[in-house]
Design a protein that fits this description.
β2 and β3 form a beta hairpin. The protein is elongated and about 130 Å long. The model has no long low-confidence stretch (mean pLDDT about 80). α14 packs across α15. The protein contains 20 helices and three strands. The chain has helices spanning about 1-25, 25-45, 45-60, 65-75, 85-100, 105-120, 125-135, 145-160, 165-175, 210-225, 230-240, 245, 250-265, 270-280, 290-300, 305-320, 335-350, 360-365, 370-380, 405-435, and strands at about 355, 385-390, 395-400. The longest helix is centred in the C-terminal third of the chain and has 33 residues, at about 405-435. A three-stranded antiparallel β-sheet has the order 1-3-2. The relative contact order is 0.04. It is mainly alpha-helical. This is 26S proteasome non-ATPase regulatory subunit 12. It holds the Pfam family PSMD12-CSN4_N. Keywords: Proteasome. Belongs to the proteasome subunit p55 family. One of its GO terms (cellular component) is nucleus.
Length: about 450
């Protein structure tokens, strides 16, 4: 009881000092008085009094910004010293309410919300943690370090993915430009010009830019895996593969390179996939995993691939991916792999044949007549190739894709032939009239 009275007396005395300093406009004195009150409450382990004093001091008339900032920063140091979880949450909520709407403590508020979200997540309240994190838009904070901003946004993305809110995860991920990871951190920082906002140093627990790059692309892989977008997953693994720390360690780059190869094979044929495929084949590290080099070579070689032979050869490798970095390739990966091999084989046939019977096409693809027609139709619809099926005689006619110049040239050629024909017809008519002396009526 005496201790409480003693504490209250000391606080009262300091509050009077704080009032005098505040009304006199003494920034240093006010800040010291406020910090002394906070420290006094902490040393006495009077957590409820601490919360009450923080609220009281922040609401005092004409309270100085510097004093509020110093008080919030000082109290944040005591969060980890709290005796139990309830006290910790109460202190975080108090500081959060005090810093709400104050631009000069926006960084502290973001850090407080992150701590609170972590507690919620540990309690299994993922949805609440995600909603809490989304309250803060750190991309507008000029004084926050770039790495801390990225780390905060990545935490927002991760919680949305855990919550299975993939639309919001994509919106948040777009706030980070991948180009930001290509900046060389070894270059010296530019000195801020006069009038520029002073950027704070990132806390020690914030990862480096290259570590954040890896985390970013790991989150992107999770997002694209939900969409079954194999090409974007492949590009994400390629970005991880290009991180210097990964390339230096074979235990890291071999699983990543395996994933790149698998997702390249699983991606639908298009110019981007073809470019990545050729670039990967030129990679000297691919010689370390010859099976995958052979797999990629089969895709660029214009020869029909026997699905059964390929599956027997790579089935074990395919199943081994479950135990490696990134886990399984996806629920539909085996079906999609077969589909990509069929598409490759149809493209090969279209290169060598201008006309072929559907029966023969089905034999070359090791499929039934109906399946061959179905897969060919799907490729025509997706504009992967140009073909026409004469179902009455069961013949497929393949055509090469013409660009706009070729189409215009063919039209011009057809018009020229038509005009020549009209001119010859007119000449023949005049000749006949001259021979038979027939007068043409106007």
């Amino acid at each position: 009881m005496e201790d409480n009275q003693s504490l209250e007396g000391k606080i009262e005395a300091l509050l009077n000092v704080e009032k005098q300093m505040r009304l006199a406009g003494d920034v240093v004195g006010t800040r010291k008085a406020v910090m002394d009150i906070v420290e006094l409450c902490f040393q006495a382990k009077a957590w409820k009094t601490l919360n009450d004093q923080i609220v009281l001091l922040s609401k005092r008339r004409g309270q100085l910004k510097q004093a509020v900032t110093a008080m919030v920063q000082k109290a944040m140091q005591y969060i980890d010293e709290t005796p139990d979880l309830d006290t910790r949450v109460e202190l975080i909520k108090t500081l959060n309410s005090v810093s709400a709407g104050k631009i000069y403590v926006e960084i502290e508020r973001a850090r407080l919300i992150r701590k609170l979200a972590k507690i919620k997540e540990e309690q299994g309240l993922i949805s609440e943690a995600a909603d809490l994190m989304q309250e803060v838009a750190v991309e507008t904070f000029g004084a926050m370090a770039k790495t801390e901003k990225i780390a905060f946004i990545l935490e927002q993305v991760r919680l949305c993915l855990d919550k299975q809110d993939y639309v919001r995860a994509q919106i948040l991920a777009r706030k980070i430009s991948p180009r930001v990871f290509d900046i060389d951190p070894s270059k010296g920082k530019k000195k801020p010009k006069e009038g520029d906002a002073v950027v704070e140093e990132a806390p020690a627990d914030i990862p480096s830019l290259l570590e954040l790059k890896r985390i970013y692309y790991e989150h992107m892989i999770r997002y694209y895996s939900h969409q079954n977008d194999y090409l974007e997953i492949c590009r994400s693994y390629k970005a991880i593969y290009d991180i210097p720390a990964v390339k230096e360690d074979p235990s890291q780059w071999i699983p990543v390179l395996r994933k790149i190869c698998w997702y390249l094979v699983l991606s639908p044929h298009d110019p981007m996939q073809s470019s990545l495929l050729n670039a990967t084949l030129e990679d000297k590290y691919l010689n370390e995993i010859p099976n995958f080099k052979l797999l990629l070579k089969q895709l660029v070689t214009m020869e029909v691939i026997q699905w059964t032979t390929l599956w027997e050869m790579y089935k074990t490798e395919f199943e081994n991916e479950n135990n490696l970095l990134g886990g399984a390739l996806g629920d539909k990966a085996a079906e999609d792999l077969k589909l990509r091999i069929i598409e490759h084989n149809i493209l090969v046939v279209s290169k060598y044949y201008s006309r072929i019977t559907l029966q023969r096409l089905a034999e070359l693809l090791c499929l039934s007549f109906e399946e061959a027609e179905k897969y060919l139709s799907e490729m025509v619809v997706s504009k992967s190739l140009i073909a026409k099926i004469d179902r009455s005689v069961g013949v497929v006619c393949f055509q090469t894709e013409k660009d706009s110049n070729d189409v215009l040239n063919s039209w011009a050629g057809n018009l020229e032939k038509l005009l020549d024909l009209v001119e010859k017809s007119c000449h023949q008519i005049h000749k006949e009239t001259m021979v038979h002396k027939v007068v043409l009526k106007a």
